[in-house]
Amino acid sequence: MSQETWTAVDAYIEAEVIPSDPVLTDALRDSQAAELPAIQVSPAQGKLLYVLARSINARSILELGTLGGYSAIWLARALPADGKLISLELSPKHAQVAAANIARAGLSDKVEIRVGDAVELLTRLGDAGTPPFDLVFIDADKANLALYFQRVLTLTHPGSLIVTDNVVRHGEVINPVSEDASVQGVRRFFDAAAREEAAGRVSTTTLQTVGSKGYDGFALSVVL
Question: What CATH number did the domain enclosing 91 receive?
Fold first, then answer.
């Protein structure tokens, strides 16, 4: 199998079950025009996030890594009328692009973008006594993945779902001597997830994925 085949299959899936959506198309266009990195989830992965959020009847969602707002739009569309999504983003430029894309989608009343260091913002959420989130999507820098995972656990409740993106790294996750900071960050994440599993606090699995974004995977953790 090749990248060409994986991309063609993604295109087939999108044509069959993901209707053309001008709002999402425009979000990608404007993100590209603003020279944001093209690292957002694929359409099929975006709809997966939507389906997961709908399946657990999520009313509150936390996202780490807003980028251009593409995944935030998918997630926010799964929320009920009174639902809320808080998205954390380090880059003010990314946040500005995302806010415009989210506004065009008619979702500004559901989505709040907070700009700053994710660890600091997570700490503030905890200190403010923020009610626990039903779903968390972690798609921020991978070097600090384990720390993000530990922090968001304190902001969830039994039954919450934590989705962590890009945890296979083209298979490099199995390389213990990798010099890639992202690979080592993912390995620390799996160590943390294993400790939480052993303690009976979460149950985690991982799905390897191929598609238009290449070879990678999602970790899915349910809070116990």
Answer: 3.40.50.150
Place of tokens 């425009």: 26
For 85, phi then psi, to 5°, come to -125, 130
For 108-139, the pLDDT digits (tens) are 999 999 999 999 999 999 999 999 999 999 99
State how far the Cα of 193 lies from the Cα of 208, in Å rounded to an integer: 17
Residue 188, φ and ψ in degrees, nearest 5: -65, -35
Instruction: Using a pLDDT cut of 70, give the percent of the chain over it.
Output: 100
Res 1: pLDDT: 74
Please name which of 179, 87, 184 lies closest in space to residue 135, comparing C-alpha atoms. 87
The number of distinct structural domains making up the chain is 1
The alpha carbons of the chain give a radius of gyration, in whole angstroms, of 17
pTM score, whole prediction: 0.96
Could you tell me if 106 and 129 are in contact, meaning their C-beta atoms sit under 8 angstroms apart?
Answer: no
Rounded CA-CA distance 85/58 in Å is: 10
Q: What is the 3-state secondary structure (H, E, C) of 56-76?
A: CCCCEEEEECCCCCHHHHHHH
d(CA 152, CA 175): 26
Give me the chain's average pLDDT, please. 97
What residue type is assigned to position 165 of the chain?
D
**What's the domain range around 174?**
3-223
- Write the pLDDT tens digit of every residue in 137-173: 999 999 999 999 999 999 999 999 999 999 999 999 9
Closest CA to 122 of 106, 108, 100, 140: 140
